[in-house]
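Standup notes, protein team

Yesterday: finished cleaning the Dolosigranulum pigrum set.
Today: DNA-directed RNA polymerase subunit beta' structure.
Blockers: none.

Input for DNA-directed RNA polymerase subunit beta':
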Amino acid sequence: MVDVNNFESIQIGLASPDKIRSWSRGEVKKPETINYRTLKPEKDGLFCERIFGPTKDYECSCGKYKRVHYKGIVCDRCGVEVTKSSVRRERMGHLELAAPVTHIWYFKGIPSRMGLILDMSPRSLEEIIYFASYVVTDAGDTPLEEKQLLTEREYRQYRHKYGTDFQADIGAEGVRTLLKNLDIQAEIDELKELLQTATGQKRSRAIRRLDILDAFNDSNNKPEWMILDVIPIIPPELRPMVQLEGGRFATSDLNDLYRRVINRNNRLKRLLDLNAPHIIVQNEKRMLQEAVDALVDNGRRGRAVTGPGNRPLKSLSHMLKGKQGRFRQNLLGKRVDYSGRSVIVVGPKLKMYQCGLPKEMALELFKPFVMRELVEREIANNIKNAKRKVERMDESVWNVLEDVIREHPVLLNRAPTLHRLGIQAFEPVLVEGKAIQLHPLACEAYNADFDGDQMAVHVPLSDEAQAEARILMLGAQNILNPKDGKPVVTPSQDMVLGNYYLTMEDNGKQGEGSRFSSVSEAIQAYQTGYVHLHTRVAIQTADLAHKPFTDEQRKQYLVTTVGKLIFNEIMPDEFPYLNEPSRVNLEEKTPDKYFLDYGTDIPKVISEMPLVKPFGKKDLGNIIAQVFKDFQVTETSKMLDRMKNLGYKYSTISGITVGIADISALEEKPVILEKAHAKVDKINATHRRGLITEDERYTKVIEVWNQAKDDIQEALKTSLDRKNNIFMMSDSGARGNISNFTQLAGMRGLMAAPSGEIMELPITSNFREGLSVLEMFISTHGARKGMTDTALKTADSGYLTRRLVDVAQDVIIREEDCGTKQGLTARAIKVGNEVIEPLIDRIIGRYARVTVRHPETDEVIVRENEIITEDKGRQIVDAGIEEVTIRSVFSCNTQHGVCKHCYGRNLATGREVEVGEAVGTIAAQSIGEPGTQLTMRTFHTGGVAGDDITQGLPRVQEIFEARHPKGQATITEVSGEVADITENAEERTKVVTIKGEVDTRSYEIPINARMKVEVGDVIERGDPLNEGSIDPKELLAVSDAETLKNYLLQEVQYAYRSQGVEIGDKHVEVMVRQMLRKVRVQDPGDTDILPGTMIDLHEFKERNKKALMSGGQPATARLVLLGITKASLETDSFLSAASFQETTRVLTDAAIRGKTDNLIGLKENVIIGKNIPAGTGMDIYSSIEPKSVGVVSENVYSINDQSEAIDEIEAVEED
């Protein structure tokens, strides 16, 4: 067997007849499969043992030789070689055809490859191949022309007239003769001359022909190999025949298709031997051609051949295509052993790095490990006995199992795996029952809940796999979300509620203003009921010795609550004492305002102090992020577990719940509604008098009702008591928000009709009062639309992720620094006056391209090629700097990837990115995963232009596919001044005239479009004249690549951030760069590129370099913007493209060109089963051996000793 890790590249080409014969172990002569009496394969049939190998291991067909010591002998009676039966998966046969046939891929594809080579239309070719017309292959001295078509009648007339002076042929033989007679080099020279003068349609056809002829010329493929004399027959185990109960057989469709070919071929041979009439032979040849077409690609031409029940048979092409095809079903996704799945339940007692694994499941998963251990401990005498013990679940196996699973991580996966946090490693803890227990903080990463979700478990077997699971994938490691670098393990629901309740303050609670000398004394007072959790008390700061207070503060009292004392106990020692959810308190120190000198009248001062807001979900997230930044993984994990325990404990103690009494009725509601009704009546009256249009009336009514709902919401906000249970739930971020409350206690508001339009009849009731029948039915539209949208969105979002992954899968961090001198000028992204993404978010974690100095003091803030940290970023913003030039993926010079400096910080770890990180895949997942949170369709507000531009998921797709946007804005092609805007009422347009320096241009814009420019404005080319989305291809045509890249980045960020989803810029940059990696050559200069060819940017630069070095003219080209689907198909790797979409087209093209796949990306390596060139699969890591680290006792954080493991790996690297 070939060692797959040893080869560098894989090539595809056309197979010559001799090549096919050389693959084969013998010719299949009969269409029989197996003998139905003996169930043995028929000799010379489709399953023949002599050709394909024995059906039983080391046993010939007749049974003369059995057992392994006859290995390699060929039986003299039946001719079968004695060997393993698995050779039936690899040995091929062949079939010699009595007449040549064409390969349908090359004749029928678009464009028809044969048609291009011969310069004939596919229709003419079809007539020849299917025996409708003759073709002149050699005109001789006759007035006929070569490649002229003749009907049967004309052929007979000319034969009669000219005898054998000309040659004409029919069927695939005729086409083969034409292909054989073709002089490729002469055709190429002729076409190159033609290109000098030709234009339009003629030129583009000539370029297409030249392209394909060049391909044949360069690839050592011969055009006549597109015609088949021999058909290869794939190994029988790949088209199996299995016996069903009841004695019937199920067989692969391919066997039926092969049988038709063999039957027709044998019949044709017999007819030829018998010298049958010409017309009968021709008909048989045509049927043979059709049979081979069906075998190769059933249904491509004419009606598909059907099997029982009118089901089209699956041909060889169908075996490769689509989700169920070979590529996607078996090569890119395989089923694995040592796996199990079960329902998940919550495991509140687990630590961050643990999961609960049902005992029986664990026993089955770790069976071989347990068996080995049983034998080693001499609990079982041999493996067979050990297996019996495990299967009977003997008492002795459980203790062994406990020891086997200790320190052996397992992987948990929840489908759909939308991002890399969908698979994490945990250390198993054996639990009773049959459900897997999951740590509550891991739910957000998996998007799991406990309403019946299931998860799969996988066991990493080798030492390397275990080391990677532990170091790279442990649940406690995955604290940050790769998409934005924010913590993904923020507590939710009751954990938030408990911590919120714990950190609340209240006036006048028992014991307010008490003084305590120590923390333990204060807690004792709480336990004995002397003070409440929310009571504000004073404590001697000196007792909090482990907290970082200033010397001054240590001599004072600290005003805090018992709850906050308990809350601060869970934080790492060096972390500031948290007394309020402010940035200063988090990052620097506890504010001075909470400290009182000894001898102050404490109760009085406290009663005058304002109450401090408790810690909500967002604040907890900020705390986690800050702890992670200061203390790294282990401390953060421990703190998270303690935070979780506190949350559960105090949400229970608080006894917060919801009853109807919590929803108080709003007194102002009838007044607000009455006013709104009056306004609507007035608007309708104005409309009846013809003073406003129907559209205006509708819009105004909608506005009135929306305003009424907002007024009610505001009134509710002010009327709510801060201790109201529902208010606490929504304010803490545990569940629900103010608009839910408005629907409970205020009014439900306007609803959308099925068409997407908003109905002007509002629902004025709320859920507490109950809805009327009509209102109930109006609101069902919205509910149903919500459900359908979610279902559609999930599928759309998943498909978007698949396309994104495909286009960026080969983007890997390949080197330290590419040394580019270019960069990206980052400034805050604004739409109108609204800041979508502030400057600080764009520059943190990136390398500065140029030194940044303070504009006033001129001191250096960040040096060139230095990473911008949070502190530096804040200094830059505080200094009033509005733009910074940073290193960017856009301008990286690394081929097939990105360098560390252009990428910057890895958002998932908060540290600099490593060489080998698959940043393309991470970018794709980061953009695709939140896709489900975006809205599906736009709400139509009754035909107001400008509001109907696409948003949400469809907008993201529109950008990445580089489509013409809906609601398109007109952009100017000249820079200059807006000279004039006139309305043309008849054509319902406005004409905008722009006076440039050289010429003046006018643009027509729809009359109801909202203008972005006024007369006298000075504008640059590429600027939009009206509101709407710009067509990126138009923008590229009139301005430079830089403008386009910035525009695309800004639009994607707007689409996501306007829905509250944050994504790191660098992910979008990776994607946009992949869309702009091709150029179209305009003038080839002295290079050998064809004009009009699309070619990779790096390759183009290389070719130009060569031309310049040899003193020639370089080629000129324009950058091309490709949508992600198109960009995936245009990739240099044919394996990656074929496994994405349009499999047959990609393979046809690759075979003709004799393409070589250099296995650069991830997909191509997965397909052939080689280590992927990312992470530990990169060459630089290949020499490292994992060493097992000593076993650690259970109470330590399992990852504690990882630092040692990592140090050891680094030490090995240095060796």
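Follow-up from PR in the comments: The chain has 45 helices and 37 strands.
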